[in-house]
Design a protein that fits this description.
Layout (H helix, E strand, L loop, with lengths): L2 H8 L17 E4 L2 E4 L5 E2 L2 E2 L11 H23 L5 E12 L7 H16 L6 E7 L8 E9 L2
Parallel strand pairs: 5-6
Antiparallel strand pairs: 1-2, 2-7, 3-4, 5-7
Helix pairs in contact: 1-3, 2-3
């Protein structure tokens, strides 16, 4: 077990199996010393954790939990490419998409769920640039989707 996974375990989290893609793409790809993940949905044990939009059917706390799962799924995708999360030098960028009603403006509070996982996993190296975007709808009617870019070493 990597040190990263051990830190996650200390707060009661563990990496899932890599989520099977819904279409014609791969969960993550490496380009040089960067790994880019595809957007990760809040899939847990093969099922979406919640559905709907913020400001209509989903509460911030529920969506933040979903964002945490998206973060774990993204880390699992990174691990599938590099083999060991201890090879991550730093988390570079997080992009969070939040399915939102037009008047909902707390997308950053939702995506904090993912950012907190990365901080716990990587400490200072988990501090990242981030975008939190409101969108009309996401695949499978998910409330949140997260993608990341990490810098890695061999």
């Amino acid at each position: 077990m990597s040190a990263v996974e051990a830190r996650l375990e200390q707060i009661g989290l563990s990496l899932p199996a890599v989520t099977v893609p819904l279409a014609a793409y791969v969960p993550a790809v490496r380009g040089g010393n960067l790994v880019f993940t595809s957007g990760q949905l809040p899939m847990l044990d093969g099922k979406i954790m919640a559905t709907g939009r913020l400001g209509i059917d989903v509460e911030i706390a529920t969506a933040a939990d979903c964002a945490r799962q998206c973060a774990l799924n993204a880390l699992a995708a990174v691990k599938s490419v590099i083999g060991d999360l201890d090879k991550v030098v730093r988390l570079v960028k997080v992009v969070g998409f939040v399915a939102s009603a037009p008047e909902f403006t707390d997308q950053p509070l939702v995506v904090n769920g993912a950012s907190e996982v990365f901080a716990a996993a990587f400490g200072e190296a988990g501090v990242h640039a981030r975008s939190s975007l409101g969108v009309a709808v996401l695949p499978l009617n998910a409330p949140v989707e997260v993608e990341i870019i990490v810098e890695v070493q061999d």
